[in-house]
């Protein structure tokens, strides 16, 4: 299952946490729990 750090919109803030549309999320969170419900896989 993909995790938040695999998403185009995820911007890492440090090794474990990132920003997604202004919401702080753990990088290893399952995308089914996406607060923005906007998961899109990164290209490549």
How do the strands line up in the largest sheet? 1-2-3
* Major β-sheet annotation: 3 strands, antiparallel
Number of discrete helical segments: 0
The shape, in one word, is globular
Total beta-strand segments: 3
Rg calc:
9 Å
Measured distance between first and last alpha carbons: 17 Å
Class from helix and strand fractions: mainly beta
β-strand amount: 15-25%
Order of helices and strands: EEE
Unreliable residue runs: none
Report the helical percentage.
under 10%
Give a topology summary.
Blueprint: E1 11-12, E2 17-20, E3 23-26
Antiparallel strand pairs: 1-2, 2-3
Descriptive key words:
44 residues; mainly beta; 23% strand
Can I get a quick summary?
By secondary structure, the chain is mainly β.
Walk me through this protein's architecture.
The protein is mainly beta and 44 residues long. The chain has a domain at 4-33. 0% of the residues lie in helices and 23% in strands. It has no helices and three strands. The chain has a three-stranded antiparallel beta sheet, with no helix packed on it. The protein is globular. It starts with 10 loop residues before the first strand and ends in an 18-residue tail after the last strand.
């Amino acid at each position: 299952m993909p995790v938040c750090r695999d998403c185009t919109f995820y911007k890492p803030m440090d090794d474990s946490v990132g920003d997604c549309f202004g919401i702080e999320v753990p990088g290893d969170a399952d995308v089914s729990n996406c607060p923005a419900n906007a998961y899109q896989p990164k290209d490549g």
